[in-house]
Design brief:
By secondary structure, the chain is of the alpha/beta class. Helix content is 46%, strand content 19%.
Length: 362
């Protein structure tokens, strides 16, 4: 039994979610596919680039020759976000005695590349692996194999759809998505949009196979369904860029050209947000508000400019990597972690925050 108010709210949630669920969340929650409905009409040559192998082989960055071996496997090398991750890894590597080997993929869709690096780490006698998973479903089998071999495994940035790991350091992405939706609604209202105006918000993400992306979209939609005016909707043309800024910019341009009612854009990753900011400023689209993640130069430039409305959620990715490495080293030495999951939190970055804190938080 539900009262009239509950029934009405449930109907609103269904109306807000159904179009996007049909095209996106059914795929994302199951994590069984990588094709995004919003990309079906795009130039296939750019999407072919996403599928190409982009393995960055291991380089020893500390303590070469040590008997204890840690292998770090990233899912991207582009942009300031991953530079901070590498800085965190490097800082921790200087404080431990293990040989640290850094590798990964330079394209977030090259899951087979990550699998090959995991297998290589096993073959070379890894004592521990620090992994930023590119696919929360496909990598489960590899992670289970690692654990069966008693290799310590710590995840950063995103999790997997299994408990086959020791510890995970990442952002609470559901909550972060809700914060992004809250700020998006506030900015849309500040722009003069009323409850009676019909408008749309477009969503861009780097991968539909990452639990972090799933949760950022899900959190956003959950908050939106509860609090957005009925005439404010989510555009069904969800865009996937594979962690490539040029693809993200092309996606933004296509969304704006094809959908005249878009008044907000939500970027679920660093590259997505960077692409949004670059295109909005290039086209002088001061009528469109932006909510996103992380702090590339283009993102900071838009937020800093008083003619534009935008916020971003700054993750503590350096802290994820640093703490993850130290935790991994402790676990190799026999210590057990009291927590399975550690939320490293986010910072809400708006114009006032940038004016007060730059360049310290970059």
């Amino acid at each position: 039994y539900m009262d009239g108010k509950q029934w009405k709210q449930n109907q609103r949630i269904k109306r807000a979610f159904l179009p996007v669920i049909t095209g996106l969340l059914a795929i994302m929650i199951m994590l069984g596919g990588c094709a995004m409905p919003g990309n079906s009409g795009q130039d296939t040559s750019s999407r072919t680039e996403i599928a190409k192998s982009a393995v960055v082989d291991y380089t020893c960055i500390a303590n070469e020759g040590s008997q204890e071996k840690i292998y770090v496997i990233l899912k991207n090398y582009h942009g300031d976000y991953w530079k901070k991750v590498i800085e965190g890894v490097t800082e921790a590597a200087e404080q431990i005695d293990a040989a640290v080997y850094l590798g990964g993929i330079d394209n977030e869709t090259d899951v087979s590349g990550q699998i090959s690096l995991i297998e290589k780490a096993e073959q070379q006698g890894a004592d521990g692996i620090l992994l930023a998973p590119a696919n929360s479903n496909t990598l489960v089998k590899s992670c289970r194999k690692i654990k069966k071999q008693n290799i310590s495994l710590v995840l950063i940035d995103s999790s997997i759809n299994s408990d086959a790991y020791d510890t995970c350091y990442m952002t609470g992405n559901m909550e972060a998505g809700q914060i992004a939706a809250r700020e998006m609604l506030a900015m849309l209202s500040e722009q003069g949009n009323t409850d009676q105006d019909s408008l749309e918000v477009g969503i861009l993400l780097s991968s539909d196979a990452s639990q972090a992306m799933v949760n950022r979209v899900s959190g956003f939609l959950e908050y939106w369904a509860k609090y957005a005016p009925e005439k404010w909707s989510i555009n069904q043309d969800i865009r996937l860029n594979g962690g490539d800024v040029e693809n993200a910019q092309a996606d933004v341009a296509a969304l704006l050209s094809n959908n005249r009612q878009i008044k907000g854009l939500y970027g679920c990753s660093n590259t997505s947000t960077e692409g949004i900011a670059a295109v909005l400023m290039k086209r002088k689209r001061q009528d469109i508000v932006m909510a996103g993640f992380d702090l590339a130069d283009e993102t900071a430039n838009l937020i800093r400019d008083p003619d534009y409305q935008g916020i971003t959620l700054l993750q503590k990715q350096g802290q994820m990597a640093y703490e993850g490495m130290l935790s991994l080293d402790r676990q190799i030495r026999g210590e057990t972690s009291e927590q399975k999951y550690i939320d490293t939190g986010v910072l809400l970055v708006d114009r006032d925050y940038l004016l007060e804190n730059e360049p310290n938080e970059r």
